[in-house]
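User: Structure with norvaline, tokens only please.
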Amino acid sequence: MNPRHFISLLDLTGEEFRYLISRAIELKNNRDPDYQPLKGQVLAMIFEKSSTRTRISFEAGMTHFGGSALFLSPRDTQLGRGEPLQDSAKVISRMVDGIMLRTNKHETVTTFAQHSHVPVINGLTDQQHPCQLLADMQTYFEHRGDIKGKTVAWIGDGNNMCHSYIHAASVLDFKLHIACPSGYQPVKAIVESAGDRIRFFDTALEAAKNSDLCVTDVWASMGQEEELKQREHAFKDYQVNTAVMKAANDRALFMHCLPAHRGEEVSANVIDGPQSVIFDEAENRLHVQKALLEFLMGKK
Ligand code: CP
Ligand code: NVA
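Assistant:
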């Protein structure tokens, strides 16, 4: 039997996404150390890129649930010496109960999933970051209730986070206003998958107008460090600052997946201000990924 994977938010129905959020809130509010649904299970975590939140939240989550997590870097395994992905996926999945990957290319995760006997979780690729959206949406639901019919403004790069916001708009049915500099738009096929829920605006102020949540991310993602100078120039008018938050609804929240660069994509007074929920967002990675691990790997 093919295991259930979590590669993209489109792998979930709206009902399942909402279930994971409510389960995450339940796990967060009633931590029971004796509840160990993944006792003895092992999650392999393959990181081609750096991480603080993703690594710690998955590792802590597995420990809370009575299991354990293995940190694997391509540098120290045969993955970095060219062992075929197919062979690696088959071998690793014979020894563990789940595999989480953070990779440069999205296709690395999809190839792993095709050949794995156990659930594969996308912990960020160049194209998507679905686990972060689980946490962002849990955070929105906790502060403001269901996001259905609300308006989210995405300001900045049309990157992996932007793509996962587009997917979330489809699955949870909210409107997404996007303002990206020209040349940095999200992938067309992903935009089209969400239909008329997505609208593009020329400026950050226009996108933020009447929005319930403003979100941004770094101007240069991991792997794009060499483009930083060029990107700083292209994105200089796409900062989320007080003027942008004023254009949004009075009760609008501010989110950022972190790590952030104050003074670049977001001003310090916004990210450290009263509308910002960035640390709830970061903490919720732990709770909602526990819900996800239980959903994919529990009740064997
Ligand atoms: N937001 C996020 O994924 O953080 P890390 O890169 O620290 O895992
Ligand atoms: N867009 C960022 C997200 C980091 C969590 C990156 O890919 O580096």
